[in-house]
Amino acid sequence: MGAISIRVFSSHPVAAADYARLLAHEKDFRLVADGEPSQIGVFDSELASLDAVLTLTRLRAPTMRPLLLASPCDENECLRWLFRGVWGVVAYERYEEELPRAVRQVAEGQLWFPAPVVIRWMRIDAERRASAMQVSLTPREQEVLDFLLRRLSNKEIASILRISERTIKFHVGNIFHKLHVTSRQELSAQWPPHPDPA
Predict the structure, then answer these.
(1) Which of 18, 41, 55, 153 has the most CB atoms in a 10 Å sphere around its CB?
(2) What is the pLDDT of residues 78-93, one digit of tens each?
(3) Is the pTM of this model over 0.85?
(4) What is the pLDDT of residues 142-190, one digit of tens each?
(5) How far lies 134's CA from each of 112, 128, 142, 159, 180, in Å?
(6) In a shared domain, residues 86 and 182
(7) Boundary of a domain, candidates 96, 112, 128
């Protein structure tokens, strides 16, 4: 694997400089500026309008894997971040020791969450996929369903998949028909994105 390209997202210049300093010390990391492609996005949870920034970044760079710096989160909060497309959460108090390892692990396609969170997510994801398979969704419909469950809009899904918003609307209609739901709210009620503890 070549150098891992990383972009830091923080609204606080001192924090951004500190994260960049830590990451720049790693020989296999390459920090990139706004507009350059990056594999990993390191997002400070104190960032103003974090959800909007994550969504916008996902639209502009759908292959970037977000990694969040935040206060420690419980299992349910970690799951909520996972369902928003975040690949891992590094606690503020451990970022100096864990951030480089987390970046490498996420770059290799692995999540950086506690094992119980990953196990719950895998179980939930498998159940959702099994339910969808029982109603014979096409591969594209399954892909659109995954984005719907992450609460993305038709416009956001169209941008990520690089197809028209009208085509997404068609797929959403087919999904609703096959799953016997009439709205996104009904869909979320059947497959809630924020599950209760097992």
Answers:
(1) 41
(2) 988 888 889 999 999 9
(3) no
(4) 889 888 888 788 999 999 999 999 999 999 999 888 888 888 877 776 6
(5) 31, 10, 12, 28, 13
(6) no
(7) 112
| CA distances for 49 relative to 32, 44, 108, 139, angstroms | 22, 11, 28, 33
124 and 162 part of one domain: yes
CATH of the domain at 94: 3.40.50.2300
What mean pLDDT do residues 18-45 have? Answer: 91
Helix (H) or strand (E) holding 88: strand 88-91
Shortest CA distance to 89 belongs to which of 61, 126, 54?
54
For 10, the domain range is 4-112
Q: Please give the structure tokens belonging to residue 51.
A: 């959800």
Same domain (yes/no): 58, 147: no
